[in-house]
Amino acid sequence: MMNEYLRPLTTLFEENADAEAAVPMVKYMRDKFTYLGLKSPQRRALFKQFLSEHGLPPGEDLEDIVRQMWQLAPREYQYTAMDLMDRMARQVGPQHIPLLEYLLVTKSWWDTVDSLAAHQVGGLIARYPQTRDEIIGKWRTSEDLWLRRTTLIFQLLYKDQTDEALLFALINENLGSKEFFINKAIGWALRQYSKTDAAAVIDFVERTPLQPLSEREALKWLENRKKKAEDG
């Protein structure tokens, strides 16, 4: 049975659905998901309107609501579930680790996994550092590529708080992977960290047999910065 909190939200979203706008959205996501046709600005505006009328749910209901949103077919509900978790971040704690794992391995694709990794997982570990070994220790050896991708990119927003040794160790564990999403994540994580410690990333790239995709992605920001400096 649907949580009563969600009924007015689903009504609001469905009343504003645009079947024509949904077509390119479905195509962009390779026909993996259905869409109501709510583009991000409109969806966020509607959610803001909903919150102004109904407020946030009780913290004890958060997991049930998020799980139900994850089961609804239109992809907009998964995006909104993550927005809800962002707004209630202080109430997302170690007890929600099983929930986060469920979200990462269910209806998995880069659009949800990347946001969950950087915001929900990264945020949880930042707030509760003692959970890091439990989470990363389990996921780093998982056969699920999305959990491994999460371990590679959960520090994307950490900047100078990045655990460099852990980042490099996780990358080394995934060397030789043929998975596009793993190799892309390696490059993305290194590119992001290069904005904090360029020398460390350059040194790591030079001494590590990365896949070409990972290496290109890792050095992209540094090369663009160098080109702008030369052109300027």
Please explain how this structure is put together.
With 232 residues, the protein is an all-alpha fold. The protein has two domains: 1-91, Leucine-rich Repeat Variant, CATH 1.25.10.90; 100-232, Leucine-rich Repeat Variant, CATH 1.25.10. 67% of the residues lie in helices and 0% in strands. The protein contains 13 helices and no strands. Helix 7 crosses helix 9 (145-153).
Chart the SSEs and their pairings:
Elements: H1 7-15, H2 19-28, H3 40-54, H4 62-71, H5 75-87, H6 97-105, H7 110-127, H8 132-139, H9 145-153, H10 164-173, H11 180-194, H12 198-207, H13 212-231
The percent range for helix content is 55-70%
* Computed structural class: mainly alpha
Rg (CA only): 19 Å
Task: Catalogue the unreliable spans.
Answer: none
CATH topology of the largest domain: Leucine-rich Repeat Variant
Number of separate helices:
13
What letter string, H or E per element, gives the SSE order? HHHHHHHHHHHHH
The beta-strand count equals 0
Largest sheet: none
How large is the share of residues in beta strands?
under 5%
Tell me the number of structural domains.
2
Tell me the distance between the termini.
Answer: 61 Å
- In the CATH hierarchy, the architecture of the largest domain is Alpha Horseshoe
The whole-number mean of residue pLDDT values reads 97
What is the CATH class designation of the largest domain? Mainly Alpha
